[in-house]
Specification:
Number of strands: 16
Distance between the termini: 52 Å
Number of helices: 2
């Protein structure tokens, strides 16, 4: 049986499939405070300019970092290099989490969990005429994704004890994930507009493995091994092999006049329409996320679970805002 930590991890990943209706999470609240601080006069850009490219002027950025380790065995969680460069349009950042199995005599084997989450929020002032507009954010990325387990991963079998049911379980879990999305913020009204096409699920890799054994007290023992991962789940279309440097471009968009806030299976379930006012201060608020998790449970020493997203070093340039187009 998977531990609560692994089940929580899988639920979190499945929840990402529906995130388009609630982009931003805690970052949105941070961005509100950020934008309130500089919204007055920050929109001093030339009217009727429809394409914004580096160098980006009058932008503001915030970095959110969260690391966590727990368990009875060694674990690490690290974040580094998170920054926004307005002169070039690059966002950089790396995250890594690892867990190392160990033995804790006389209590048996232990557990460990390492988690790192980094987020860069960047606000871009944009000028508009009164009416409806389509916003397109063009991005590029060059990052390395790693999610792997090293070792033999031999789980101890349940003890065969006549007249007693016995059970033993082991699990390990690695997850490296990236995504980015944007929202339109009306600083005058302090309101957000998000859309189902305004987000990108980036390169990822993921494995959740567990091994169960049991004996029924009558001399019959069974094993059940199961592995979940982006390689065998149909909705993880952004998987890359562990250790792969992934590069690509994306265009996400938001139409204020015919915007779908939430869609599923090709159908829109929440329409949100805005008519923009040229006297208001508007911002494109971009969120770039990277997370890495590694955990082990009940495996003996010599096994390590490790995940990382490298968007800052060894030739990895991270994410680039190529342009923002207002039409």
């Amino acid at each position: 049986m998977a531990t609560g930590r692994e089940r929580q991890g899988r639920a979190t990943r499945i929840g990402r499939l529906a995130r388009y209706g609630s982009w931003g999470g805690g970052g949105a609240a941070i961005a509100v405070a950020l934008l309130m601080a500089f919204s007055q006069g920050a929109g001093a850009v030339t009217p009727h300019v429809h394409v914004y490219a580096a160098p980006y002027t009058h932008t503001k950025a915030l970095t959110y970092k969260s690391v966590s380790t727990s368990g009875t065995c060694p674990a690490t969680a690290k974040l580094s290099g998170w920054a926004w460069a307005p002169t070039t349009g690059f966002i950089t950042g790396s995250a890594s989490g690892s867990a190392k199995a160990c033995s804790n005599a006389p209590l048996g084997n232990g557990n460990a969990y390492g988690s790192a989450y980094g987020e860069e929020t960047v606000a871009f002032p944009v000028a508009v005429t009164t009416g409806s507009h389509n916003f397109t954010v063009n991005t590029a990325y060059h990052i390395t994704i790693t999610a792997a387990g090293t070792g033999t991963w031999m789980c101890k079998a349940a003890t065969n004890s006549p007249g007693h049911y016995t059970y033993n379980s082991c699990s390990w879990y690695v997850d490296a994930y990236t995504s980015w999305n944007f929202e339109l913020f009306d600083a005058t009204n302090q309101t957000y507009l998000y859309g189902s096409h305004a987000g990108v699920s980036g390169p990822e890799n993921y494995t959740d493995f567990y091994a169960d054994s049991s004996c029924n007290g009558l001399g019959n023992c069974t094993w059940y091994n199961s592995s979940y991962g982006c390689s065998n789940l149909y909705y993880y279309s952004d998987c890359v092999p562990s250790g792969t440097t992934a590069s690509g471009t994306n265009a996400s968009w938001l139409n204020t006049g015919a915007n779908c806030g939430y869609s599923y299976a090709g159908h829109c379930y929440s329409w949100q329409n805005w008519t923009l006012n040229h006297t208001h201060h508007y911002y494109i608020v971009l969120y770039v996320y990277a997370s890495a998790y590694g955990s082990t449970y009940n495996y003996p020493a010599g096994n390590v679970a490790m995940a990382s997203v490298n968007g800052a070093t060894l030739g990895n340039t991270g994410w680039k805002v190529s342009s923002i187009v207002v039409a």
